[in-house]
Amino acid sequence: MVIQIYITSAYRAYEIADYYRKKGAYVALGGLYAFIFPEEVKSRGDTIFLGTGEGIWPKLLKDFCKGEAKKLLN
User: Fold this and answer.
1) Max CA separation in the chain (angstroms)
2) Is the entire prediction scored with pTM above 0.85?
3) Of 38, 42, 49, 65, which sits with the fewest C-beta atoms within 10 Å of its C-beta?
4) Cβ atoms within 10 Å, residue 17
């Protein structure tokens, strides 16, 4: 699951991320909030996008399929 975090909905994004992680889903978080506050966000997701999803998404898929997904991607 990929969630884009907006400043106005960060806590709701965390609730959704926590819910799906408890069910065993792999959660990637991104967006402006993640870019500005990566230290806060990194405890809430498996991978944190620090840049545009269009450029990072292919990297995540490639690494994930090899079992080598990184915590921070930019």
Assistant:
1) 35
2) yes
3) 65
4) 21
**Which of 34, 20, 21, 27 minimizes the C-alpha distance to 1?**
27
Structure tokens at 36: 């500005």
35 vs 13: CA distance, rounded Å? 15
d(CA 11, CA 27): 15
Cβ-contact 26, 64 below 8 angstroms? yes
Residue ranges per structural domain of the chain:
2-73
Give the span between the Cα atoms of 20 and 37, in whole angstroms.
Answer: 21
